[in-house]
Amino acid sequence: MSYVYLYALLGVSLFVLGLNALIVHAHLLRKILAVNVMSTGVFLVLVALSSRNEEVLPDPVPHAMVITGIVVSVSATALALILMLKVNRATGKNELPDRGRD
Amino acid sequence: MELILGDVPWIVVLIILPLTGGMACFLFPAISKSLGLLTSLAVVACVWGLGWQLEEEGAQRYAIGGWGAPLGIDLYADGLSLLMLVVAALVGLGISVYSCGYFSPDKANHFWPLWLFLCGALNALFLSSDIFNLYVTLELLGLTAVALVALADGAEALTSAMRYLLISLLGSLFYLLGVAFLYHSFGSLDIAILAQRAEPSPAVWAAVGLISTGLLLKTALFPMHFWLPAAHACAPTPVSALLSALVVKASFYILLRMWLEIFPMVGTSFAQLLGLLGAAAVLWGGIQALRQTRLKLLIAYSTVSQLGYLFLAFPLGTSLAWKGALYMLLSHAMAKAAMFMAAGNILVLGGHDRIAELSSITQRLPLTLTAFTLAGISIMGLPPSGGFIAKWLLLQASIESGQWWWGIILILGGLLAAAYVFKVIGHVFTQDEPTRQAGTLPTTMEWSALVLALVAVLLGLFTSWPLAIMEIGSPFGTGHSG
Amino acid sequence: MEALTILNWVLDGLLGVSLFSLAWLALASPDIFKAIVLFISFGLLMALAWVRLNAPDVALAEAAIGAGLTGALLLAAFARLEDISIGASDGEEVQSHIQHDSNEEPK
Amino acid sequence: MNWNTALPLLIVASSLLPGLMIFCLPENRVVTRTTLNLAGALLKIVLVGGMFWGILHGYHFETRLVLLPGLDLVLRSGPLSMLFVTLSAGLWLITTVYAVGYLEGSPYRSRFFGFFSLCVTATTGVALAGNLITFLLFYELLTLCTYPLIVHRGTEEARKAGKSYLAYTIAGGALLLLSTVWLYTLAGTLEFTERGFLSGLDASLHPTLMIIFAMLIAGLGVKAALIPLHGWLPQAMVAPAPVSALLHAVAVVKAGAFGIVRVVYYVYGIEFSNSLGLTLPLAMLAAATIIYGSLRALFQDELKRRLAFSTVSQVSYIVLGIALASPIATLGGLIHLVHQGVQKITLFLCAGNLAETLGIHKISEMNGVGRRMPWTMAAFTIGAFGMIGAPPLAGFFSKWYLGLGALDAGQGWVIYILAASSVLNAAYFLPILYTAWFKTPPDSWPAERSFGRKETAWTLLVPPLVTALLTLALGLLASAPFNLLEWARLIVSRGFAQ
Amino acid sequence: MERSRWLLPLLLMLCLGLGYTVLSMPEPVEGLPEMLVDNMEVAGVSNPVTAVLLNFRGYDTLLEMGVLLVALLGVWSLGGIPDYRESSPGLVLDIMSRQLVPVLILVAGYLLWVGADAPGGAFQAGSLLGAAGVLLLLCGWRIGNRCSGLPLRFLLILGLGMFVVAGTGLLLIGGEFLQYPSPVARELILMIEAAATLSIGATLAAMFLGSLPGGADK
């Protein structure tokens, strides 16, 4: 049970934590934070499982995938933030009208 | 001619062309309209070229960067992806022609680059055979779709765009976690290699669950459909036509591709669940569509219902059922795009789309009305239309495989569709005199709707050509029967 | 040698627990600004975790983009959010923008 | 494209192309529209005549288009389809002339005549269909084309009638589709063959075949107005007169009856369906409809509603004739298919005349109308007597053969049904004639339009007279060469085992 | 709170399920690393992650540059965000940014260069440039109107454009799409990375700004 699995479990728990926050919180900024935490969780799982046997170098493909994932998530967050500002301007509130579920 | 057609790698050109078109429109906004139209035409030509190549040599695999499957990324084109490309190209052309007349100049500058990037993302998605690459294309598709929905300036449009973005991101993350599990248990990201190496294990079960949930979120299957009607109804018309006809189908395509190749060993219990959800979608979507008072919301709920049909093919599993589902996808894309364009015409001329007061507007739009009726015939699945052929194939598959209850769902869905289509058409035969609203509609907007509706109807008569396309590379040959 | 592995385990455990608690606090804190700051610190700590998983490239990317830029975007959005709600936003440019579009505005 | 394969398609296209062209015509181009209409009708009759001539010289006409692998659209010229195609072609010409006169000056005529020609295309398609899927395709097309005609007026009542018409027919169509697919999966083919293609299937499938038969009859019964699926017919009378004349007397209703003939004879085969015990319940259902239709007709004051209920009962004669497993009864049913069409169209055209020229809709308003419009009422009387079954007219022969067939099939109770229905026919037709001829006319008619010396426009008067003469001719010249009886005997001989 | 009644147990179950799956994950019988190692010398760069990012899975990075550009397009199409208020930068920010920005640009250049052999590369360098851009924007600097039109747009699409041009160029000279001939692979990758860094920096800064600089075509 090397330390890698510890991080993998941490990744899973971050994923679930983010999912819970996304569903529970209504404020849009919190939802965007929750999405970011979830994606960090998924990336953690990806990279942690890539270095399971210590003797060989860790597998670089997941690393590349995670870097791509980080850039994708930053662009999605940027769009989400600007969209949130527009929603706030148009509806005056920071929440989605009918408390859409997740 | 054969020489040129033969060795041009159409498969790559199909992806690069829309991207370059998008960049060009972004660089030179003044001429974005003509550039966009030109690119759409060129994409149709490329799809024709690829179809010609596939006809010659069967399914085609193209290793990008020359590295080959496990290391590099492969593009794979067979009958299934060619059919989706044809749908995307034809509906895309119709939408490009329609949006030439639809957008005000400053909105058009934003519309064309986004639309061409979306077209590029669609082509990349249909051609890729690498599951992480599919994640990136899904993300590109999601962001462009959200940006396009947010083009319409209403509070409603912005909130539905926000909800759509959150759902899209959530779906992608579920999908990515599934990809992580698959990669770490089988060591490759390529679908073909995964198909050979996959055998049932807890990791695969989890991956199936995660990937399916993620993709079902993006396909808006029944329990997770709440974001679709608002997004499709409040978006600008060409965008809602785009979303209903193409974007929602892209995630269905990935689920289908995965289901046929990597998950065949998954028990039928999961397939039955998908079938049940599909049946619930058909009935729920139909009933909701019947209760709507606004035309675009009615059509959006009709999309929710029609998507349910596609999932009925999962529990059946025979190659006939898959062909029926694909034919339904093809004719629904054409008919739904035509319907949304017709609704858009009514909205632009009349200023509102309340169904009760449609009659005075439709008196002045005979072409749009014919387009809506023909598209309605295909949605209902009445004979001279593609919808009928799809319904016939699905019914035959359901009876042959002994699970006749899916057939009953199909029939009930058809009745519900007839109810809500005729609810709209019924308002046309009234004695009100035409509206005196000023301004006329550019004819390209009416004709593009009519042409797409005609294609949906002609699909009912000339079925040999689409069926032949589905056969290339026998994507369903491996599907377990029964 | 034995001590080193125990130390490693303690370090990892500490890092894991602090990461989780930071994420929990960031998502659950009542005040939005506090949430953002906690999230940025969570991002920085994540960079450390990537290093521990010997993925230096990812650590760099996470530090620069995940913590740095995402944090900057969040703070900028938060600031603008405050402007709008205080009503200090410059009125005319915004109003003119909303009404000018095509008559497609659903009544 | 030699003649053998092109002719059926040409016949169907001869009304499709004018229809599509008429759709594009602006409203004021009356002359072009009428010429297109008449040209289409005449062309169709010429082509049908050509096909007749071809069949007599032993040619075989069939158009085959591939729809799905193993399933294709077939238009074939069999004896039965010739019967129905000649009927619809002839009556379409007459009704078009009538409709041009009837709709003078009313709005949306391009739309009306466009859908009118599409309807006839669908009817000819139904007649010429060579297998069950082609039949289904044109059957559903017929629903789509008749709906706009019913709601043509645009009044609230018309739209309500349209809604109920759709409810019935779309549901019927769905049932038909389900049973056709089920049949296809069981039998592997849908081609109409002389003695049915289902007798070869093994015995274990018989219960499913019975369920499928019930669903097929329910699907077709909607249009054939069998009870309890007849609800839409009386409401559809709100449509303009040419629509109710051609469609509800000839095209739509006959398509249903024709479908039942196809199913019983060319899908199941009369002997096989008899052995399955399916024909008796069908005969009982038809008999019940006959009595029910006539009873309801008694109490209708509105002329067109009474005629509608009379149609409900008359069509069931055909179904009754088919269901009695004897060649003579079938002969009676088939000739009634033509006779009822001709007689009913006469009555509806006369009703249209009364409504158009004098604004009469109710029978109580018809006092002494015979004096004001003698020719129209003469045609009405001939039609009425034909319906009752008076000897020299066509109606008599069908009832005569039905009776003989019932005896031959050993179903004595049918005689009582026929007798009772004839009495009921007399009970609801004779009062109309009495009020029209013998009562004193009121001093002014509700909405009189004077046409100078003539009683009404010639385009309105000539069609009913022609159909009345046709009723007479079918009755008197029953044994002349090329007559209807000969043709029906040919069909029947092919249908039965001997 | 009716919803939390069924939400928490469901999420806990999900967490346990995923945790168990992760722990019981079988070791892949033939993973990618071995194949990667013997292809490294052909890849033109020695840092495995950059090799995978730019060479083996270069198509992913191409699409991902597209994602960045599309996100910016989406942000600009939304528009209508009030510009960042023109507060005069505080003394500390002013001095700090005068020192920091050149260092940031230098480090970005270094990261770009070292990316071939050690951890670093286009995205990290690009984000540093973006950070520099953000600092400048905070100090109230705005891109001059003269070059906020075509030149800025050209800079933004430089990353994706260079990728596409390089790919098709290689295609035309006979190889597969994005197939770098090994002798010249290193220089090609560096060129593409440089273009990518510039456009990533510009894109991230523009996204921070939020709306069209100078509202040119509003």
From TrEMBL, chain A:
Family matches, as Pfam families: Oxidored_q2
Membrane topology: Multi-pass membrane protein
Highest taxon, organism lineage: Bacteria
InterPro entries named among the record's database cross-references: CPA3_antiporter_subunitC, NUOK/Mnh_C1-like
Keywords, ordered alphabetically: Cell membrane, Membrane, Transmembrane, Transmembrane helix
Stretch forming the signal peptide: none
Transmembrane segment boundaries: 6-25, 32-51, 63-85
Compartments, as annotated in UniProt: Cell membrane
GO cellular component: plasma membrane
Family of the protein in this entry: Belongs to the CPA3 antiporters (TC 2.A.63) subunit C family.
PANTHER family named among the record's database cross-references: ANTIPORTER SUBUNIT MNHC2-RELATED (PTHR34583:SF2)
Name of the protein in question: Na+/H+ antiporter subunit C
Annotated source species: Shewanella canadensis
UniProt lineage: Bacteria, Pseudomonadati, Pseudomonadota, Gammaproteobacteria, Alteromonadales
From TrEMBL, chain C:
Protein name: DUF4040 domain-containing protein
Pfam families linked: MbhD
GO cellular component, one term: plasma membrane
Phylogenetic classification of the source organism: Bacteria, Pseudomonadati, Pseudomonadota, Gammaproteobacteria, Alteromonadales
Domain of life, per lineage: Bacteria
Record localization: Cell membrane
Regions that span the bilayer: 6-28, 35-53, 59-79
Keywords on record: Cell membrane, Membrane, Transmembrane, Transmembrane helix
Record domain MrpA C-terminal/MbhD: where: 20-82
Membrane topology: Multi-pass membrane protein
Automatic annotation (TrEMBL), chain D:
A cellular component annotation (GO) from this entry: plasma membrane
Entries under InterPro entries matching the protein: ComplexI-like_HydComp, ND/Mrp_TM
Topology in the lipid bilayer: Multi-pass membrane protein
Cellular compartments annotated: Cell membrane; Membrane
One Pfam assignment: Proton_antipo_M
Membrane-spanning parts: 6-26, 38-60, 80-100, 112-130, 165-187, 207-233, 245-268, 274-295, 315-339, 375-393, 413-437, 458-480
Example GO molecular function: oxidoreductase activity
Coiled-coil ranges from the UniProt annotation: none
Record-given protein name: Monovalent cation/H+ antiporter subunit D family protein
From TrEMBL, chain E:
GO cellular component: plasma membrane
Localization terms from the record: Cell membrane
Pfam families to which the protein is assigned, alphabetical: MnhB
Parts of the chain that traverse the membrane: 62-79, 100-116, 122-141, 153-173, 188-209
Domain Na+/H+ antiporter MnhB subunit-related protein per the UniProt entry, residue ranges: 92-185
Stored InterPro entries: CPA3_antiporter_subunitB (IPR050622), MnhB (IPR007182)
Top-rank taxon, per record: Bacteria
Alphabetical UniProt keywords: Cell membrane, Membrane, Transmembrane, Transmembrane helix
Membrane topology: Multi-pass membrane protein
Similarity annotation: Belongs to the CPA3 antiporters (TC 2.A.63) subunit B family.
UniProt protein name: Sodium:proton antiporter
Organism: Shewanella canadensis
